[in-house]
Amino acid sequence: MILTLKRPILSVGSALWVALGLNGALSLSAWADEVFQARGYYAKGSLREPSSLLQEGPGYVKLFQSRGRQFGSRELVGLIEGVSAYLQQVHPDGERIQIGDIAAETGGRISGHASHQNGLDADLSFFRMNRTEQPISDESGFTEVFVKHGKLTENFDIERNWLFFHTAVSTWKIQRIFVDPAIKRLYCILFDSQGDQAQLTRGSDQASLGEAGETLRRLRPYQNHDDHMHIRLYCPAGNTQCISQEEVLPGTGCRELQALEGRHESSWDSSNQKLRKEHDGW
Ligand SMILES: [Zn+2]
């Protein structure tokens, strides 16, 4: 079996919570002192008193280091650190996850992106079968494309990328993960063959989706994500300065993907306009 779709969430969760440092309760003073870092919307926002991702840490390395885009909310930086460390524990011989642009020190508009403005968006590399990292010296962008002619290349590591998606979603901090439509399609096919069909048809109820279905739901198909994924966090709880994006529709989104792909190309364009609105840039 390729995907451990029925992986018990607690075994992922308990190790993950330790990695994230979330096993201890937040003190009241931590809440009282909290600064609302994320301001405004993903595509029209800013960042106050940002947290900064180190250039490298357990399981991750920052790409494009000279760009000065390693800043984010503490939730986003903590999630990257925690999930990376967890993945390294599970696959100690794997390559590190490579982190692209997050946000500028004070947030706001940065070149090449419409979003990434309020410290809740980050671009990340995909895991590779050859376990080879992109050279840090190459700051031109993500260098490897994993979708060719609508199909995934052999170097896309299906299992470890799924583990990343699933672990990240299990923190309940992730609202969306933008990926190329071919990547979503692949996991839809695997879910169809391995998941519970009954769960698929009951998709209107979030709880009935199951853990794998919930992860699949968060994978949002979008063009220009064939060489990296883009994770987007919810506004942090209690942050009244942050503007939320509408929640992802219930269900896995696999039928909608099929419908999109079944249409004529021009219809795809108009459908994609809806996705564009949802994404607000990359
Ligand atoms: Zn992005």
Descriptors:
alpha+beta, binds zinc ion, Muramoyl-pentapeptide Carboxypeptidase, domain 2, three-stranded mixed sheet, 15% strand, 282 residues
Q: Any overview of this molecule?
A:
By secondary structure, this protein is α+β, with helices and mostly antiparallel strands. The protein has one domain (36-279): Muramoyl-pentapeptide Carboxypeptidase, domain 2 (2-Layer Sandwich), CATH 3.30.1380.10. 35% of the residues lie in helices and 15% in strands. The protein has nine helices and 13 strands. The chain has helices spanning 9-20, 28-32, 74-90, 158-169, 181-194, 197-201, 210-218, 254-262, 265-279, and strands spanning 38-41, 44-47, 51-52, 56-57, 60-62, 71-72, 97-99, 121-124, 147-148, 151-152, 174-179, 219-221, 229-233. Mean pLDDT is 83; it is low at 4-14, 21-30, 197-207 and 264-269. Zinc ion is lined by residues 113, 116, 121, 123, 230, 282.
Describe the main β-sheet briefly. 4 strands, mixed
Tally of discrete structural domains: 1
What is the beta-strand fraction?
Answer: 5-15%
- Segments where pLDDT lies below 50 for 5+ residues? 4-14, 21-30, 197-207, 264-269
State the end-to-end CA separation: 33 Å
- The average pLDDT value, as a whole number, equals 83
CATH T-level topology: Muramoyl-pentapeptide Carboxypeptidase, domain 2
Indicate the CATH architecture: 2-Layer Sandwich
Number of strands: 13
Helical percent range? 25-40%
Report the top-level CATH class: Alpha Beta
